[in-house]
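Inverse folding, one chain.
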């Protein structure tokens, strides 16, 4: 049976990739991915057949990977972070199922390190209790549903990890997220802002929910908003698990 690998390449440079990610990419003949993600692994793929494309061509990339796999190639379809978290893994499964190829192609999802984990490690320990991840991108999810999820997360006092917080096309959605969460959380709630985690231009900032929108936030930023127990010390964010000390 043919086999396709859906690989999470980690949050930053090659040092952040898992051993299995390295192994799979080195073994593959063909690499398919988004332009920027392919560039991140350039040193590993110099001798390979590479297919890359820009934003909003995810379906085309996945279909290309499937086609190359059916032709007998060993294919790595790469995502940034973890391939199963806002990545390509689910889309590949959908395409193979819809095209009736599940008896012809085996899928191996190779885990990476998600943006929530990488940002949390740089901020300290903000995810030690229950948390949710919410993408503010309204390309595939209606804005009304995004807002509903923010309300539920705020009411439940979850730590909230925000993916895709801002772009040129939707510069104000992070402001709306702040407004919604301030209905449930104190304006003094700690907020961690990590830009370009584990990349050369990485920057880290800890602020509060009341001042969050004053910070520099873009599409390569991960925002982590604490719960009512989260505190800051050591220039870090810590969310207690609830142990008796």
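Residues assigned per position:
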């Amino acid at each position: 049976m043919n086999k396709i690998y859906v690989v999470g390449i980690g949050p930053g440079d090659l040092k952040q990739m898992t051993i299995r990610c390295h192994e799979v990419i080195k073994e593959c003949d063909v690499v398919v991915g988004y332009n920027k993600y392919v560039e991140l692994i350039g040193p590993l793929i110099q001798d390979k057949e590479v297919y890359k494309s820009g934003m909003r061509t995810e379906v085309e990339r996945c279909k290309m990977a499937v086609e190359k796999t059916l032709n007998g190639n060993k294919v790595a379809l790469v995502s940034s972070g973890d391939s199963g978290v806002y990545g390509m893994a689910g889309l590949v499964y959908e395409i193979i199922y819809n095209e009736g190829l599940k008896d012809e192609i085996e899928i191996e999802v190779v885990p990476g390190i998600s943006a929530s984990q990488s940002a949390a490690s740089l901020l300290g320990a903000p995810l030690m209790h229950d948390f949710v991840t919410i993408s503010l991108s309204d390309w595939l999810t209606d804005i009304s549903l995004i807002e509903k999820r923010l309300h539920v997360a705020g009411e439940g006092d979850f730590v909230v990890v925000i993916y895709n917080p801002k772009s040129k096309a939707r510069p104000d959605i992070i402001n709306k997220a702040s407004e919604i969460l301030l209905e449930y959380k104190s304006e003094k709630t700690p907020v961690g802002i990590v830009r370009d985690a584990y990349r050369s231009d990485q920057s880290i900032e800890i602020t509060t929910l009341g001042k969050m929108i004053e910070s520099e936030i873009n599409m390569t930023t991960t925002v982590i908003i604490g719960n009512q127990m989260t505190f800051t010390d050591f220039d870090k964010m810590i969310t207690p698990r609830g142990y008796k000390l």
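DSSP finds seven helices and 13 strands in the chain. Helices lie at 19-27, 35-40, 58-70, 89-98, 115-123, 143-155, 173-181.
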